[in-house]
């Protein structure tokens, strides 16, 4: 009986304790740790600022669930005739079994039907089949290779594939027509020819930033093209078919096609109507939407980072043109790339600022919520979290190349016209090889604080110029960094280490250039531009060329930095060794450097 009574008392006391705890929790609800919350889907900014800088009201509706986003297209789509996939089992020859002397030519009689037209070589009589070809397996069109050198691990990253955005190539002349025998590539989901995406990222201080750019930067470019309302350069504008009203009608049609997936009970839309595109674009013109996006991003840089960005006006933004008194130009690929680069950099830096600094000596004395920021963090296009559990202080460079064609003929065809857009931050490098002369044509410049362009940019903010100093090797650095433009580097943002890209646009004529090379500073810091081009000329495929460049750079390098290289075939690939001296211009120097590197008495620096 005593044991039963004690058990009853214990249960009663436990019940009263639970009730007391419940009452206490009702009076003082537990604090929600922002670092462990699931990041909601991305929202568009408002004219007064972004919603992630404002504390949400208690009566606000819960954030909508994350929508699955398609994976990055690491392949390209093309058309192949069905005969190439399933060839006929019959032997080639005449269709009849008569001997040659018994066959008589057909003479059409009056009243007979018309003769069957002969099919053109590029128009097979069988149906075309759409196939996906992985880009990294197409070794005759693309090659990529990476090596960690003498470092403990590889901080470089690269990406290649196709992205969904309107074409930005120049419209082909009227005289250009598809010739018989030319291959044709399939169109993208938007109806334009596919846009190819190639990128190289060189991380420093770790691989978190370079891997983030590898996985997310293409999504930022696609989202920026959608938010800007970028129009295709290949379609003629028709009255009533452009502008925000046409975009809203297309979105409503897409919602109707999706069916009841986005409609909740009672016929109510489950999406957040306050942030829907229709509510913000129906009353605004495209130029107003563009100005609002750019002004909101610049204002967020000023309030979040400050310092250099208080007088920050990106070159390709309409806000910079309005400050100088110029007229607002139509939205182009330059503004889209600038916005996507700056948006990705701000998201990465803000995400790191929300995390705990592992090197803080006074971390135990600071409050638990010291690193918390009110509101909802801005999510990347994929909706995934950014970085690890602790603050990442490193960064990364980026070199992105986009190729757009005006017709369905792929850019590697000898008779194809194409447009190349390069966005670059840091000291990675992009080169073209001219077919006629065999010379290297650089499309990027190293963003070092000692160059005239970067020095004049940093002088706009006085403390940034005073932070530039030389190291023991005579190289100028800004706050210890060799690059004055980079993603990440949270400690150096206020003094001018920006991610504003240097954008170059080039028109590629038929077979005008042989190939395109993208590389990290582990290659460009060791080899000259002409050496890199000549090494690729001696290779049979772009894949072999990328591997030879990295192996040669690693062999003759003094510091053994990470080396990454991409080689993209262009229209003049078959004639890459005809122009100039071919690959013999630097062969003697390359042989001498190899012999010096293999010398056992060589002294390392």
TrEMBL record:
Keywords: Hydrolase, Metal-binding, Protein phosphatase. Residues 79-90, 269-288 have a biased composition (Low complexity). SUPFAM superfamilies: PP2C-like (SSF81606). Residues 587-605 have a biased composition (Basic and acidic residues). One of its GO terms (molecular function) is protein serine/threonine phosphatase activity. Residues 35-120, 231-288, 576-605 are annotated as: Disordered. Transmembrane segments: none annotated. It holds the Pfam family PP2C. Residues 141-570 form the PPM-type phosphatase domain. PANTHER family: [PYRUVATE DEHYDROGENASE [ACETYL-TRANSFERRING]]-PHOSPHATASE 2, MITOCHONDRIAL, PROTEIN PHOSPHATASE 2C. Belongs to the PP2C family. This is Protein phosphatase 2C-like protein 4. It comes from Escovopsis weberi.
């Amino acid at each position: 009986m005593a044991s039963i009574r004690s058990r009853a008392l214990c249960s009663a006391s436990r019940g009263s304790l639970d009730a007391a705890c419940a009452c206490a929790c009702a009076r003082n609800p537990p604090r929600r740790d922002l670092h462990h919350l699931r990041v909601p889907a991305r929202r568009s900014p408002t004219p007064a600022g972004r919603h992630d800088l404002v504390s949400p009201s208690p009566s606000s509706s819960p954030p909508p669930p994350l929508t699955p986003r398609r994976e990055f297209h690491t392949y390209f789509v093309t058309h192949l005739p069905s005969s190439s996939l399933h060839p006929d089992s019959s032997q080639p020859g005449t269709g009849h079994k008569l001997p040659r002397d018994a066959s008589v030519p057909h003479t059409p009689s009056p009243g007979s039907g018309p003769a069957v037209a002969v099919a053109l070589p590029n128009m097979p009589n069988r149906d075309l089949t759409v196939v996906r070809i992985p880009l990294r397996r197409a070794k005759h069109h693309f090659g990529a290779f990476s090596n960690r050198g003498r470092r403990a691990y590889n901080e470089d990253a690269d990406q290649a594939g196709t992205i969904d955005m309107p074409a930005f190539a120049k419209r082909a002349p009227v005289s250009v027509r598809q010739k018989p025998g030319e291959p044709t590539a399939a169109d993208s989901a938007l109806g334009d020819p596919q846009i190819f995406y190639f990128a190289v990222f060189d991380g420093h201080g770790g691989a978190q930033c370079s891997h983030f750019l590898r996985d997310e930067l293409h999504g930022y470019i696609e989202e920026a093209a959608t938010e800007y309302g970028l129009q295709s350069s290949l379609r003629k504008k028709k009255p009533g078919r452009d502008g925000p009203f046409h975009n809203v009608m297309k979105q409503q049609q897409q919602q109707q096609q999706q069916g009841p997936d986005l409609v909740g009970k009672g016929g109510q839309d489950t999406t957040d109507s306050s942030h829907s595109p229709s509510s913000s674009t129906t009353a605004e013109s495209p130029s107003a939407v563009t100005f609002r996006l750019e002004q909101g991003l610049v204002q967020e840089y000023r309030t979040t980072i400050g310092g250099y960005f208080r007088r920050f006006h990106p070159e390709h933004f309409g806000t910079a043109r309005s400050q100088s008194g110029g007229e607002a130009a139509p939205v182009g690929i330059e503004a889209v790339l600038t916005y996507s680069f700056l948006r990705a950099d701000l998201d990465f830096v803000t995400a790191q600022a929300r995390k705990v600094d592992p090197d803080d000596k006074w971390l135990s004395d600071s409050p638990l919520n010291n690193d918390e920021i009110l509101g909802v963090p801005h999510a990347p296009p994929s909706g995934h979290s950014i970085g690890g559990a602790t603050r990442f202080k490193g960064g990364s460079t980026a070199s992105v190349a986009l190729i757009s064609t005006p017709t369905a003929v792929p850019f590697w065809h000898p008779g194809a016209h194409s447009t190349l857009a390069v966005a670059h931050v840091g000291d990675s490098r992009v080169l073209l090889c001219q077919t006629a002369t065999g010379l290297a044509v650089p499309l990027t410049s190293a963003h070092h604080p000692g160059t005239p362009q970067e020095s004049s940019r940093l002088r706009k903010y006085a403390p940034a110029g005073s932070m530039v100093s030389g190291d023991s090797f005579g190289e100028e650095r800004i706050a210890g960094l060799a690059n004055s433009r980079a993603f990440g580097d949270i400690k150096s943002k206020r003094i001018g280490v920006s991610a504003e890209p240097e954008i170059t646009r080039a028109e590629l004529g038929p077979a005008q250039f042989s190939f395109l090379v993208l590389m990290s500073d582990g290659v460009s810091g060791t080899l000259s531009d002409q050496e890199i081009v000549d090494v690729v000329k001696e290779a049979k495929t772009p894949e072999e060329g990328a591997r030879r460049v990295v192996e040669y750079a690693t062999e003759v390098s003094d510091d053994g930095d990470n080396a990454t290289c991409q080689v993209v075939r262009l229209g003049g690939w078959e004639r890459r060794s005809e122009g100039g001296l071919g690959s013999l211009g630097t062969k003697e120097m390359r042989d001498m450097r190899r012999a010096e590197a293999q010398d056992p008495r060589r002294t390392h620096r």
